[in-house]
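Suppose you are handed only two things: the residues of a chain and a line of SMILES describing pyridoxal-5'-phosphate. What would the bound structure be? This form records exactly that question and the answer produced for it, so the two can be stored side by side and reused later without any lookup.

QUESTION INPUTS
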Amino acid sequence: MKRMDIASVRKAEAELLLPTYDRYPVMASRGKGVYLYSESGDRYLDFLSGIGVNALGYAHPAITKAIERQARKLIHTSNLFFTPYQAELAKRLTELSGLDRAFFTNSGTEAWEGALKFARAFARHKNSNGNQPAFRVLAMENSFHGRTFGSLATTWTAKYREPFGPLMPGVTFVRFNDVEELRRNFDDTVCAVCVETIQGEGGVTAITPQFFAAARSLTKKTGALLLVDEIQCGLGRTGKYFAYQHYGILPDVVTVAKPLAAGIPLGAILTTNAVSECMHPGLHGTTFGGGPLACAVAIAFLETLQREKLLPHIAKMGEYAKKKFEALKKKHRAIRDVRCYGLMIGIEMDSADLAKNMSKEMLERKIVINRTHETVLRMLPPYIVEKKHIDEVAKVLDELLS
Ligand SMILES: *Cc1c(COP(=O)(O)O)cnc(C)c1O
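ANSWER OUTPUT
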């Protein structure tokens, strides 16, 4: 491919692509560890990891090697053939999650879409007396589940949803962490309660133990499913394999994606044997999902988490980051709140403009973060991050706020 500079790429994209992205003024060229290098030779400390995807940083040797080996052997076969990879990956994910079975997808939204379909199919399956099966879905305010129609219908942000209506009917939004409102809206017409254990796009906000417990016990009573979206907070991000494991609650359905294959597109729906009974051949499927390359890389990702003992490292770095950023909060009144769950970090500023400027100025200082939920600076650094990197981010934040 011919080499192009950022100005000509920008011009070509403006003519050739749909105008869906507001990109940073940087042309990425390559990456190594925690650093992303631009075409013009600048080095960026990447505290976003491609929105929580590049969990082992850039060009991790275990991932590069898994891709090379598998690409030589078998990239794709469709789901018409047996290959050993899906079962091997499902074995690991079910052991880690406490669930029984997996279905593999290509993205987060596709995993969430499947989870919603399973909830509807499960309600129909267990409804044997000929009544209208439960079909309503309770979703949360400030939720984000993706951009396809079902995911969008359960996503709170009106500007993402409203231009595409009418969406999937039967969705009611409940105020996140409001137990009373959840109880008021829950009845036996509900087939699913949908939560993110830690809302990501919604500003890095954790579910409360009381609310999680209420959602679990209400759904258990009627046989509705508790769907938990861990696409952003799952697979090590919070220092445990799954964020719900901090609460001692087992969902019926869990979705994961972002870091699962360390940069290769892959998602998964994990669920119980009971839910799996509502499925049969042909009822759901995908062409690409769970391909040999993606699954082999995901296996290498999980092996690396274990071999490099990254979970305790994430917990330790998370604690360190929390201390550093809380010290900044004491010093700067513009910081309203600091929320650190392992390496899922939100720093809430007292205005949207300030948050926007901060994110921009951090980039000028060669640090990648982003702004979410208007006022929140979000960081999702790779799991291999070290104290010195956190120190540098804290130092630059401190300087910019001074
Ligand atoms: C990113 C994200 C999704 C959507 O994933 P895509 O791969 O972009 O479709 C869904 N839910 C949560 C919590 C996410 O963070």
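WHAT STANDS OUT: Residues 107-109, 112, 144-146, 196, 200, 229, 231-232, 257-258 surround pyridoxal-5'-phosphate (CB under 6 Å). The domain at 101-259+268-284 is CATH 3.40.640.10 (Aspartate Aminotransferase; domain 2).
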